[in-house]
Each structure stands twice: as structure tokens, then as C-alpha cells.
Amino acid sequence: MTRVISLLPPSVLVLLTLGCGPTSSTDSGPSLWTRAERTRYEQTTGYGEVVQFLERAAASSERMHLTTFGQTTEGRPLPLMVVGEVPDARPSSVIAPERTRVWLQGNIHGGEVCGKEALLMLVRALARNEHPEWSASLVLLIAPIYNADGNEQIAFDNRPLQFGPFDGMGERTNAQGLDLNRDHTKLESPEARALVRAYQEYDPHVIVDLHTTNGTEHGYHLTYAPPLHPNTHPLIDGLLRDEWLPTVTTGIKASNGWELYYYGNVPRGSGTEPSWRTFDHRPRFNNNYAGLRNRIGILSEAYAYATFEERVNASRRFIEELLRIAHNQTAEIRSLVTSLDRESVVGTKLATRGEAQRSPTTTEILLGSTEELQHPYTQAPIRRRLDVAEPTTMYEYGRFSASEEEVAPATYYIPERLTSILELLAAHGVDGTALEADVTLAGERFAISRSTLADRQTEEHLERTIEGVWGPAEFQLPAGTVAIPVAQPLGRLAFTLLEPRSDDGFVNWNLLDDEIQPGGSFPILRVMSEPEQRAGQPQ
After folding, report:
1. For residues 400 and 496, what is the distance between their CA atoms, to the nearest angstrom?
2. For residues 27 and 241, which has the higher predicted lDDT (pLDDT)?
3. pTM of the predicted model, to two decimals?
4. Which of 21, 180, 312, 455 could form a disulfide with 117 if both were Cys (CB 3.0 to 4.6 A apart)?
């Protein structure tokens, strides 16, 4: 429920000058205070200030190494702060020591700025040598301003109803108009390509993506989500749901009194079942993509109607608790990731399409209330959380299962002419080998019976769905055809990208439109086991 009240008190709304920020005997100087802090959370930190902040922090500590991991659409270098007992920021230097590597990113949506500010505060704490115990176990890879172009598009109305920063915030999309948290499979933005390349080069074991909510009024300061795709290895799902996230929730409740829970919203509309529903399972989203790379992916969502300062602090505490767990379990994390990368999915059933599952029993979800105020400069309505938590019993839709499955093959075979597909697989880090000679193989070919397009655009695409069936076939493959083995560390991801019925694969994103027609055949072939691959003889 929302309570409407009058304009915010003027005392709360005074815009302070940049020079009157917090002071402390342990301060590293005014340069290591964020714009948010210096303005009492009226403003958010701009790109140039982020870079200056990181440069000064790096200059203050031998354990901090500043580099970049790519450029934005508008040409802004993407800063990456490497923190740990490593000689420099080169990937080879970062990977060499036996440390757990944790990637922390903020600002994937330019208007969701609390993660950016929280990560800058973390950098300052580490520059002051807080948490010295982490240096023996962790290397942190901190990317505080991923959507740097979007961050710079400051406007009052970019996030309607959100409680601050009152002087405006950036826009959701990048300079191409793309949502970067929908671009992890198709990789249409330079930012996403740079990010995925960094994931390959630095190979983080843990990936944390910091957001701010939209939607339902609830009683949580922060919500979170593990990887949601049903093809995520169950050991990752179990680690997060059974250990990490409950531990973080308990720790922050004890230290700060804040409630945390799994991300969700309550759908609206007459006749709609009251339920707590998470978001999408598909790997276009960062945490889901991380899971299909066999990595511990975590999303957080600070509550939009909490004050800007509260959102920053909630995000900061979430990070701190996660890093404390990673420090305590560093050997176990590395062992888990190594074992998952060695495990083959060939011959196992994997989901091509997923659907949300209703929980077997109801649970109590903390719904909340807000008061409606006027924006101090525009007089537009904004909302501030009230300290209200209303336990409401409902079902949850917080997990996904397969609505369709296929047995993972041994190998996919891609015609040499499909250069864009091959380049995209390489960009993801999926391994492949070109045939050196013509080969005849016994395998399977997918016969297309129907092809449809979505009614509405998503990311400037009309998503495609094809219907059909795999059937036995013998085919001749010319030299140059590229074999993609599924028995590789990224086998789960390769399967999801290449299966024709995948709900987030290359077909879905129109990348094979020129090759698809009803009554025809899918151009990518597969063989189910290695013995079958040698049914023919080289020609």
C-alpha cells in the first residue's frame, strides 16, 4: 500500500557542495569520497570521477592495480580494479596464484547506481587495508561502472518513483539502446563482448551483479537470485540456496536488522494468483549466464524505495558478507569449479526450454508499504519505504524446470559458411576444430516443420521459435566444417546456444534466419556419441 503525504522537508533536500563531504581521522583524503557521499546522497558519481577515484586508490596501495577490460559504444574505457597479492593486472598474473577470483560489477543498468557507489566504497576500504585477511585467499576484480555510457545520461525521470538520487541518474540502456542485461548470449554490444572476454581471460570463480529493483512494494532491503537456468549444475544451485544466501541473510539480519530474501514480484491483475515470482531463467541475464559457464553467479537487487543511502549500504553489506564466505571457503570454491569444468554433459538430458515451478507449499513473503512524496525539484511523485513488513502467505515461483529436453550430443557440426555463428561461439570461449578433410558421418539432422516470430520486439529482435524433430541421417561434411565438442568446460552453454529449440539460442535471436524455412533442415548437425562419428570414411 502507498500513503500519500506532502513535499519533503526542505532540510532534507538541500544540495550540499562537493567540498563538504564526510571527514574522518582515517580518511585517505577528499579524493576517496564518492560524489554520493560528498553530496549527502543527492547525486551519483560520474564516469570521470569514478576513474579518478580508482586512479587515486590504486596509487595508494600496492595491492591495487587499475586496468581496463574494453570500451563502451561511445568509446569510454571500462575500468577494472584488481585487488590482491598479485604483481599487476594482467590476466596471467591474476590467475597464477591459488586464490579465489571474485568478479564484482555494478551499473549494468545506468540508472541503478547503488552498486557502483557500494563498490567504490569497497575499494576505499581495501585501500585503507581493511579486511587484510582477504589478501591470502581472494583476488577481487571490481568493475563498478559497466554501463558507463548509460551512467552519463543523467535525467530526473530515468527511474520514476525511485527515492533518489534527487539530482538525477543515468538511463537503463547503453548508447545503442540495448539492455546490457539481455545481451549475454547474442553479444551485440561492445560492452557485452568485452565482459565475456574478461570472464574468459580472468576466469572468475564467483560473479556478482548488483542491481536496483522495480515494481512490487515489499519488506526487504535487498533481494537476490542464484542462476535460474535449469541446466545450471545442481551443486552451484545447492551451494547458493542451501549455504551462501541463507548465511548472508542471517548475518545481515543480525548486524543491521535488515530483511533479505530471494528476488520476486507479485503479479497484478484481476484473477491473478497471489504469488512471489522471480524473473527469467534464460542466459541473456548475467547470473544465469554465469551458471551455464559453471560459475557461481549471483544477482542482487537493492530496494528502489529505500533511500539512496540505504540502498548503497545494503549493497555494500551484501558484498562484504559474500566476500567473507568466499574467504572462508576459498579452497572449496576452486575445487568445485575445477570439478565442474571437467564434468561432461554428453548423453545427459538438458533443458531446451524452461518454465517456472510453483513451490510445493506456501511461504510467508514480507510485503511492504511506501509513502508517496514529491520530488524536490520536479514535484513528480516518488516513493519512500515505510518500516513495515506484512507477512503474506503465498506460493513462490522461484525455480525453473525443463518444459522440453534433449539429450546432449557428443558434437555439433557447423558449416564453414556460418561465419557469424562461429565468431560468436569463439567470442563466448566455446572451443571448436575445423575438419581437415571431407568426412562421412552418421548422426542426426533437425527437420523444420514450422517457424514463428514473436508479436513484439525484444532488443530490436522478433524472437524466432522453430518446431521440428531430430532424426537419424548420414551426411557428408566438407573440409572446413567446424566440430564443436560438447565435452568441454562450456558444454552447457554450447548446448543452449546451438540447439534449434533453445529458448535463448542463436535461432531465437534471428542469427540463423537466412538458413531457416519450413520443410527445410537446420544447418547445424549433431552426432550423439563418439563411436557413431566414425561410421564413414574420410574421402
Report:
1. 15
2. 241
3. 0.93
4. 312
